[in-house]
Records
---
Amino acid sequence: MKRNSYLITMLLLLGLMMLTTSGCNSTREVNSNADQIKVAVTILPQAELVNKIGGEQVAVSVLVPPGVDPHTYELSPGQLKELSETALYIRIGHIDFEKNWMNRIAGTNKDMVIIDSSQSIEIINGDPHIWLSPRLAKIQAENIARALQEADPEHQQYYADRLQNLQKELDQLDSDIGEKLSPLKGSKFLVFHPSWGYFARDYGLEEIAIERDGKEPTAKELAELLSWAKTEGIKVIFASPQHSTREAEAVARELGGEVVIIDPLAGDYFPNLKKVADTMATALK
Ligand SMILES: [Zn+2]
């Protein structure tokens, strides 16, 4: 009997030691797998913001694939399945895809928390492209950080610290772009799809879009736009890689100008917006 209980104690101790050691060794792996919060976002630039705040505590998936128009994208059955295992869905706020799919998305997973990253941002005329303003991205970042802190209170300070770093980076980006575009203050620019309204507002520019409410303009609207562009001496039409440039090219020919591509949905948020500012500075000079 005595011998037996001694053996049991030894075995228990051994087991305990093994548990502790394996716990220590596998912390990182646990963090990069089972312990990570599964977060879904709508578009690539959002993933960049979530990753900057969430770091190794989050695993982010993007619903709208690269190169695809998020206004009209339709979810695949595989993505709906993936959403059934997602803890947190951070929506941009007002993009058509979200409006069309939110009921289905919410229905796939009743436990999933859905957060609107546009909370406390003033949306102008239903324009969903808030992420293209670094100033509005700062508000989105706050909303994202709060959502992560609520989902994972254990790492509150971690998220708070990383949010602070991100805010500094966004301030720097804002002032870099502002500096680059300040000689162009008051300029009007022509775009095919109206992605750059908030961006234009922040830097004292004015965006004129060829598309009207997501649709091609009527012949009359187009004729008016062309005659306006001619009197303004506009030679550049900005277009995005997610849309066909056929119409933009036709307009450019008409104006004797050219189509210049700028990307509203690139995943490398910071370098991309700097590149956009450079491209605009050159094109509108
Ligand atoms: Zn858009």
Note: The first strand starts at residue 37 and ends at 41.
---
Amino acid sequence: MKLRVEGPLIGQSRACEPILRALPNWFGLEASAQAYITQTDLLPTFIAITDGSTVGFLTLKQHSGTAAEIVVMGVLPHYHRRGVGRALVERAEDYLRRTGTSFLQVKTLSERHPDPNYARTRAFYKAVGFVELEEFTEIWDTDSPCLQMIKYLL
Ligand SMILES: CC(C)(COP(=O)(O)OP(=O)(O)OC[C@H]1O[C@@H](n2cnc3c(N)ncnc32)[C@H](O)[C@@H]1OP(=O)(O)O)[C@@H](O)C(=O)NCCC(=O)NCCS
């Protein structure tokens, strides 16, 4: 598969919304899907393109000069486990290193929640080098415990 990653770009909701809509097991809550769609317009976003269409994206938020966060990312189901997610993370990390960012975090559902889909998400983040930092019940709600993961960008 010939894959190209572009970014960082803003104004990417048109490319990213179909991907979010194709992942209802992760982004099925309309309010949060809408919030993510807005973020892909406002925040720096990387898009993965193959066969002339966008098959994955990753959106970053810069928290400080040295710290950033993956606020959302997704890959069309048909393209899972084909290296698209890893390519997006690697490209975002290259960009962050060049701009002096050393710490990259991501928040996801903790393993205290039984959702098997998010177990796969955590496996992905671990595979690309994130480690578990802290769990929070105050950030989302007590039924959705939040796991903060972090990676030091060497
Ligand atoms: C998480 C996600 C972005 C990963 O993208 P992807 O393109 O499928 O991931 P990659 O193919 O680059 O996988 C890289 C490595 O992560 C690990 N990994 C990925 N998916 C996995 C899964 N379902 N189970 C276990 N490990 C997994 C593997 O080690 C994999 O390497 P390998 O295939 O050589 O074994 C994608 O599955 C997705 O869109 N999930 C739904 C939305 C989501 O979870 N978004 C993140 C929360 S905002």
Note: The pocket of coenzyme A is lined by residues 23, 26, 72-75, 80-86, 108, 120-121, 123-124, 127 (CB under 6 Å).
---
Amino acid sequence: MKGSIRLFKIFGISINIHITFFLLLLLVIPGGIKWVFLVVGVFFFVTIHELCHSLMAKRFGITVREITLLPIGGVSSMTKMPEKPSQEFLISIAGPLSNIVIIVIFFYPLRYLLGPSALLQYPLSTETWPLTIAYLYWLNLMLAFFNLIPAFPMDGGRVLRAILAARLGYQKATRIAVGFGHAFALLFAYFGIIRLNIILIIIAVFIYTAASGEETQVDVKETLKKFRVRDILPRDFVSLGSSTTLAKVLELVFHSHQEDFPIVDGKSLAGFVTRQDIMQGIHQYGMEKQVGEVMRKVFPKVKDTDSLVKVQAIMHEKGMRALPVMRDDEVIGIVTIEDIGRVYALASQRG
Ligand SMILES: [Zn+2]
């Protein structure tokens, strides 16, 4: 995520901290060392919470590249979404559950160490160190409950979708969960405004837009599921020999609708260049360089029988905007992110 600093790496996941966290620290510093302790403590527990989501995701073969800690919680970036509702349920519940486990484990030890009156004092305060530690302890409970609110895409909302999806299917379940997300966002915004609570307003905006974003994502996925590469494959395409100069390639980019090219050696596919590869090659080596010397030799391919969902997932995961399409061992075309976008735009208009 932009504007974040990498702290450390654990279980292969980078833990990043967003700069807004330092702003929060600056805000609480005038309140004294106990407030700083509280903020750092909360971030420690948010990290554990997010790690539990990630470790559960890992069990289902979903890789988590990084966790970014924001003042309002953490965001895990997963390479793909869980496929089965039961997986989403377990991944989503793992985070809040970790906070509840912490509450259960530390209750008696803290009651013994701090004394029952300090641990159970209400309202929470930072007057003394025992009270501050009790404050931090109870923040775990708030973290668990807040995240379990069914405001999709927060954890509780994902749990709700998973339960609904098992009966209603993914798309319908998402629609209902997004409705909950929007309703809670409006509720948070209302309380944020009448209580002048800026954090609550930020959370409301975040939930509203994130819920809408996920709804679009699911709609796209469900629409693209219905199509295979061969249904949308452009009829003609240009492939290049490896000795073609970059000047010639650039001319082809201008005169055809194609911006990415397979490089063939006889009939077999030897390489692939994207628009960026061509531009970068020209910038680095000049117009007379041969395309065979700047082409990618390792790149993903798709089959004409693959579904567009699969193609889109590969493009997303590998950061490619175009892929060569194969039938048996022969390249038969190019599929681009624009082709997929066009299909989605047309199909969703019709439906
Ligand atoms: Zn969570």
Note: The mean pLDDT is 89.
